[in-house]
Amino acid sequence: MTTLCDLFFPIRPFVPALLSTWLRMPYPVTCTTRGADLTQDTVVVLCPPQCTQWRMSVFGTGVYAAVSSICGAAVHRGILGPAGGPVRVHRLQGRHNYISSYAHGIHSQALSHWTASFSLTKPINVPQELISETSTTALPAAARPDCQMDIAMVIDSSSNIGQRRFNLQKNFIAKLAAMLRVGPIGPHIGLIQASDSPRTEFLLTNYTQPKELLFAIKELAYLGGDSNTGKAIMHTAETFFSQENGGRRGHPRVMMVLIDGWPSDDLDQAAMLARESGINVFLVSVAKPAPEELSMVRDKDFMKKAVCKDNGFFSYPIPSWFSTTKHIRPLIQRLCSLDGLLCSKTCYNSVNIGFLIDGSSSVGDGNFQLVLEFLAGIARSFEISDVGAHIGAVQFTYEQRLEFGLSDYSNKDDAINALRRISYMSGGTSTGSAISYTTQNLFRRTGPGRNFLIVVTDGQSYDDVRGPAMAAHKQGITIFSVGVAWAPLDDLKAMSSEPKDSHTFFTREFSGLSEFVPLVVRGICKDFTENN
Questions:
Q1: If both were cysteines, with which of 235, 437, 459, 492 could 400 make a disulfide (CB 3.0 to 4.6 Å apart)?
Q2: What is residue 16's predicted lDDT score, i.e. its pLDDT?
């Protein structure tokens, strides 16, 4: 018998049809995917080529602890070669005394006990085209290596949408999720419902298998209430993409917000936080307000204010919930367009920061360590990597010493450790010459609004600072001056960029430097945002 639910929410026949496609082909994994990362009792996975070049942990012989790399264990077992290929994984119970051995270039380790295990066999009747594709690092249709995004779907669960259209919305996002094809090397999807208060339904890493994700969407319950989309965006921007909640470091952050009609609250502050956090907000508006309803819309420009950038790319209007299917592919093309995700670049992952450090005799070794801790506090606020933010340091007395360049360290821990290891020089104070040296030797990267120099000094410079500072400003370098003790305020302001007051800091004691960390970081981000 046909029910109302079948008429209004035809997802049940749709889900098995989608799943049958995935179940007929190997599931792509990385060289370091562990047995514990899989949820099925038996599954065929597809290992990429050249896994022996990766550092893989393998525990056991024949039967492997679930903490082991699947592909590493397959090489050890002798059923996987350098070209990669399919492997059948059988989940087993935990056991004691996993045995160490050396085989096929892999040294497996012993382990006294683990809570789960797996064994491996070579699958039969796997289509040859799936095996041959691994030799050229291509992946089967089940993976989307071109869309390695972390995507938060914020859906409308308010009284505006109603139960019927809510079910159509679920059908739409299920099809969208199916075509996105989640997986370890593809997109991850989490979901939040917008109502009176936002409700997180699942995080980015709760469902990384297509089958589980589609059924989780199917089970979503309608909430009702106000359409507080601003609250939902704020809630999502604050914590949803954190590493503790499954956000992947270095992966673009995307928030797709669906709204039926118009929001009940303001979106300005929430959208601003999302942009500052490097989140690309897309707004999919379905069934825009009719002319007679416009008087009820508190902010007629809500779409422009909500999105990452008001350029047409991040706004996607759909006339009706009954005509969403044809919009799935073009919407996915936008969500997965790496070049189009303008909000991925923020001050935290895009700036080059140079530290110009006074090493003169008046500073003293103890205070010099306080200066280094102050600068480490600034550096800690940024996402330092080979494709992210960069820091470099120059120490000066009468002479200058390049401690390390902007490209010398590609991760935060190494960069901060290098900063803390700088040895104190001791000598005179020639700040002007040091600025010129730093401009020429540290800042070789171009890009207005991206290069920042933090000058820390405790006294009068023996040479002119105005000329070198002006030359640095013309080169696109923004200078923040931080003075301590006897540093003249006139010199500090002469070095600083405009407006002088917000780029100049002074404290009588070196112990007061730590208070400037959030102010300097905020100033850098403000300048970056205004110039980019």
A1: 437
A2: 52
Handedness of CA 435, 439, 441, 447 (dihedral sign): positive
How would you classify the pairing of strands 85-98 and 63-65? unpaired
Q: Residue 312 corresponds to which amino acid?
A: G
Lookup: tokens for 353: 């920061």
Any idea of the CA torsion for 369, 374, 378, 380, to the nearest 10 degrees? Answer: 50
Over residues 501-517, mean pLDDT: 95
Give the per-residue pLDDT at 42.
87
Using DSSP, how many helices (H) and how many strands (E) does the chain show? 17, 20
3-state secondary structure of 121: strand
The contacts found for 300-304 with CB under 8 angstroms, 24 or more apart, are 302/262, 302/263, 302/267
CB atoms within 10 A of CB 220: 20
Determine the average pLDDT of the residues in 78-105. 88
- Amino acid, single-letter form, for residue 124: I
pLDDT at 156: 95
Report whether pLDDT(338) > 80. no
The answer to whether the CB of 27 falls within 8 A of the CB of 37 is no
Q: Kindly report the number of other CB atoms within 10 A of residue 20's CB atom.
A: 9
**Sheet arrangement for strand 352-358:** 400-404, 390-396, 352-358, 451-457, 477-484, 504-507
Q: Is the pLDDT of residue 129 over 50?
A: no
Q: What angle do CA 207, 210, 214 make, to 5 degrees?
A: 80
Other CB atoms within a 10 A radius of the CB of residue 298 amount to 11
The reported pTM is 0.51
Packing angle, helices 365-380 and 517-531, rounded to 10: 40
Q: Residue 125: its pLDDT value, please?
A: 57
| Digit-coded pLDDT (tens) for 88-97 | 999 999 988 8
- The three-state secondary structure class of 21 is helix
Q: Does the pLDDT of residue 131 top 70, yes or no?
A: no
Triad 352, 355, 359: Cα angle to 5°: 165
- With 50 as the cut, is the pLDDT of residue 6 above it? no
Largest distance between two CA atoms of the chain: 92
Q: Distance (Å, rounded) from C-alpha 425 to C-alpha 361?
A: 8
* 160-166 contacts at long range (C-beta below 8 A, 24 or more positions apart): 160/227, 160/260, 160/261, 160/262, 161/227, 161/260, 161/261, 163/8, 163/222, 164/8, 165/260, 165/287, 165/321, 166/222
Average pLDDT over residues 257-273: 89
